# Entry
Amino acid sequence: MKTDSLFYRLFQEWPELVLELAGLEISATGYTLRAEEVKQTGFRLDGVLAPPDDQPDWPLVFVETQFQHDPDFHARWFSELFLYLYRRPPRRAWRAVALFPNRAAEGTVEAAYELLLAHPWVKRVYLEEALRAPAPTRGVRVLGLILASPATVVAEAQALLAEEPAADGGLTGVALVDWVETLLVYKLPRLSREEIRKMLDIFNVELKQTRFYQEVFAEGLEEGRQEGRQEGRQEGRQEGQRQERLRIARSLLDVIADDRLLAERIGLSEAEVRGLREEKK
# Structure
């Protein structure tokens, strides 16, 4: 499974997670993630987390994900780091973190890189070991979904989506739902997004904020408004919107089993939803 784009998107929306992996206890406010290429070399860094200009004491953070064994990884990684520092001198401290699924993916460490890897500014994280910690953080467990088997990934994703967000921030709500959906599309390629949403029951997770709901519901209401305008009467607008609500509700009957919840989300009465279920039988 191709994971680079998944990691980049997650770290871009959740810079706190990069700082956590790097062992830094500082605010992520103002940090931005970029994918940087060192010109004329063909080297491309997975991610460079840049602090705001008005915080000179905050370090630049390089993050690399390596989920396939590469015998030349350490040579390539340090070449990328130091070429970047040479070509674009940051004039500030820096940190570097490499994320592996396990130690086997890293492979043997050549003697030439042992001292560099032992430096306190360089950190390696092995996800399987981090997940076995007594109390893995929410960020580590979100990353762990990438390693989960197809048989367990949906249940693990449901549990994460059902949790209350941490007080110190992190990826939550719509952004987390969208990222989990995308991950499952990669891991369960035979399923459509609609089938994945049903499995996750994501409509119990801020339904009105999800991209799916916003696109479908907004489109439906616009059709209702257009129908009302064409009728030229308030009654026409209301009826057009009501018919669209009914259409959307019919499409969600198999997704949301709770009549009250579905009625609240769509803007219908429970009696109307029960009537739709009776029609379907």
